[in-house]
Amino acid sequence: MDALEPLTERDIFLDVGAGIGNVLAQVALATKVSKCIGVEVRGELCSLGTERMLRNVDMYPFLRKVFLKSADVRNLLLSAQPPTCDATIIFANNFLFEETAKILVARELSDMTNVRIIAATSLFLS
């Protein structure tokens, strides 16, 4: 998190491969970003993450900034569709992505004009 500082209210955080949203929750609670958006292909993980966020939102109101979407990144236009196209900070947990998904995500992220920082768990092209 320290490497991403300073994050402000103008920042929108996007987590590609978000799982149940642990990184999203951490960013929402520890930074000033206005939104934390997660995309996860496995619907059951999105449901579980959303349920856990909602269960804890009264105790941790900043969790209201978190939005999880169940979708396959190969079928999304991250760079053209709100709210993902507005992201300024991106974390791509792409270690287990198929090569075609990595290529498509790399292409989409390169077209995102507002992005300041991209962090990824593996190279996009090998």
From TrEMBL:
EC no. given is: 2.1.1.360
The primary site where this protein sits is nucleus
Q: Does the keyword Transferase apply?
A: yes
Task: State the Pfam families in the record.
Answer: DOT1 (PF08123)
**Could you give a single Gene Ontology term from the biological process aspect?**
methylation
Q: Name one GO cellular component term.
A: nucleus
**Residues covered by the DOT1 domain:** 1-126
Q: Which reaction does it catalyse?
A: L-lysyl(79)-[histone H3] + 3 S-adenosyl-L-methionine = N(6),N(6),N(6)-trimethyl-L-lysyl(79)-[histone H3] + 3 S-adenosyl-L-homocysteine + 3 H(+)
Q: Where in the cell is it found?
A: Nucleus
Task: Tell me the keywords, alphabetical order.
Answer: Chromatin regulator, Methyltransferase, Nucleus, S-adenosyl-L-methionine, Transferase
Q: Where is the signal peptide?
A: none
For this chain, one GO molecular function annotation is: histone H3K79 trimethyltransferase activity
Q: What else is known?
A: In contrast to other lysine histone methyltransferases, it does not contain a SET domain, suggesting the existence of another mechanism for methylation of lysine residues of histones.
What's this protein's function? Histone methyltransferase that specifically trimethylates histone H3 to form H3K79me3. This methylation is required for telomere silencing and for the pachytene checkpoint during the meiotic cell cycle by allowing the recruitment of RAD9 to double strand breaks. Nucleosomes are preferred as substrate compared to free histone.
Q: Which family does it belong to?
A: Belongs to the class I-like SAM-binding methyltransferase superfamily. DOT1 family.
This protein is called what? Histone-lysine N-methyltransferase, H3 lysine-79 specific
Upper taxonomic classification of the species?
Eukaryota, Sar, Stramenopiles, Oomycota, Peronosporomycetes
